[in-house]
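Feature request, filed as a ticket because there's no other form

It would be nice if the structure record came with a short human-readable summary line next to the tokens. Right now we just get the raw output. Example of a typical job, pasted below so the devs can see what we mean:
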Amino acid sequence: MKRTLVSLAAALTMIAAPTAQAIDLGVAGPGPHFASSENIEWITNMPLAVDSAGANFVGDYMYITTSRDLTIYDISNPESPQRMGFLPLPQQPYYAEEDVDTNGKILLIGTYPADLYVIDVEDKANPVILGQVGNADQHTWTCVLDCTWAYGSEGLIADLRNPAEPKIVGNWGEGKPAGGSHDVTEVAPGLIVTSSSPMLYLDARKNPAKPKLLGVGAGPEGQYMHGNMWPRNAKDKFLLVGSESTGPQCEDGAYFMTYDATKIKKTKTFNLIDKYTVRNGNPTEGDAAADLFCGHWFDAHPTFRNGGLVAMAWYEHGTRFLKVDSKGKITEVDWFLPIGGSTSATYWVTDEILYSVDYNRGLDILRYTGKP
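Raw output as currently delivered:
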């Protein structure tokens, strides 16, 4: 049996040789390792935050949730995160709070089936529950206006001006063409874009309990809009959007998309420019043979300015590195494919270091050596 395994590893290495660092089964780590394009350097794996659907970053700290807990890490040395604090908080198995939001002082977690918890995270070593409101479960909760308010993905609005006594005070979808979404993004203070069909551009600056509709953006037919980002506090000319779908193939399902945001004030509309998806194929060439799910959280490189590099988690397809040119056209330039992985989120922690969060593997720490 040992002889067979060695022969298989050697064969895979020979197959991958033309693509430089295409596959590596020999580095110490949790089982079979990864395949990647040549611009990806794998640093280490932390097999702790398994089944996590995402994290958030404020200053030198990472806040990450699983089905069991909230954990805070000191990432001042991004290649070696150190656990600071831990709060047991059971959630729906495999579907822990996604895109957990915080301003570094309080943090929001919605737990299945009913409650919104406000967590005091000022003491990173000792996070504690500060406030709670029932009948307020949403798929995600988003801080608005420095976490003095919060918008839920399905429409609820919470008043957090007294975070120890949160109150549900309204619904951002009331009277609008979309009443709920997968996620809500505060793209600039008080300005909101919802990942709904259609997407809504809302202004919460004057009256957070009753936001004003500024514009809309339609997604491709049949797409489940998952997340969005408008770089540089809504000053960039592109709105970046991702959708999600189920497998076994992703070709006609999840997309990464670019939208023209330059005419939103005049036309009240975000217009689709381009969309990209992955294909099924040979893992040693960067393609998964089949997919359980397709398309998840993405992050724009810190230098993104009217174009640039985006890293997107794609479940069984790992992390895809996508270039957006000055016209909004999308091209894949690199990839990291963990063997046996299911990548849920990827984050640029620095200009070079990425954290790739995986439902099966935990946290892979990567270095990108290409040009952003």
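Something like this underneath would help us a lot:
The helical segments are 2-16, 231-234, 264-267.
The chain is about 5% helix and 45% strand.
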